[in-house]
Design a protein that fits this description.
The protein is mainly α and 164 residues long. The protein folds into two domains: 13-102, Orthogonal Bundle (Rna Polymerase Sigma Factor, Chain: A); 107-162, no CATH class. 66% of the residues lie in helices and 0% in strands. The chain has helices at 3-11, 15-25, 28-50, 53-69, 80-102, 115-132, 155-162.
């Protein structure tokens, strides 16, 4: 470890101190530091809890929005990580209850859908992507699996779906 890294680690603020600054002064740099430090662990937790990486990303954003919204209720004697994880877990539990209440299931698992319904909805989506020149969609959170393409479909695949 270099001398500069060692010295900077000695003088860097803890998560609790950063949250104290956010709480008292609405310090945007302190909040950005907390988000930067915790966004990946919280995203992984939410994705693991819901089984969906896209929902995990949404819940991660909701978690940090809730942290900022509830910043005045943070107790300085508590650990920030425990408080943050509890907020994230509660949002995950709420989302899982919402999914169960709505009875959501992916379209490709729907046994009642006819081939023409699937082909029609898929055709509309592919045509829209192709016409707009979109080769990658980053936020296709609620799309069925067979609509998610790791890369743009080939012309042959487009012709097959659109013309069948």
């Amino acid at each position: 470890m270099s001398k500069i890294t060692f010295l900077s680690s000695l003088f860097s603020m803890t998560d609790e101190q950063a949250m104290g600054r956010v709480q008292a002064q609405d310090d945007p740099r302190a909040f950005a530091r907390l988000v930067e430090r915790w966004e990946e662990p919280i995203r992984r937790l939410c994705a693991r809890m819901t089984g969906d990486p896209h929902r995990g990303e949404d819940l991660k954003q909701d978690t940090f929005a809730r942290v900022f919204e509830k910043r005045k209720s943070f107790r300085p004697t508590a650990r920030f990580s425990t408080w943050l994880w509890r907020i994230a877990l509660n949002l995950c539990y709420d989302e899982l209850r919402r999914i169960n209440r709505r009875g959501e299931s992916p379209l490709d698992a729907d046994e009642n859908a006819t081939v023409s319904e699937l082909r029609g909805s898929c055709r509309t989506f592919i045509a829209a992507r192709w016409c707009c020149g979109i080769t990658r969609i980053s936020s296709c959170a609620r799309l069925p699996k067979f609509w998610r393409f790791p890369k743009a479909p080939s012309t042959h695949a487009l012709r097959k779906v659109l013309c069948s």
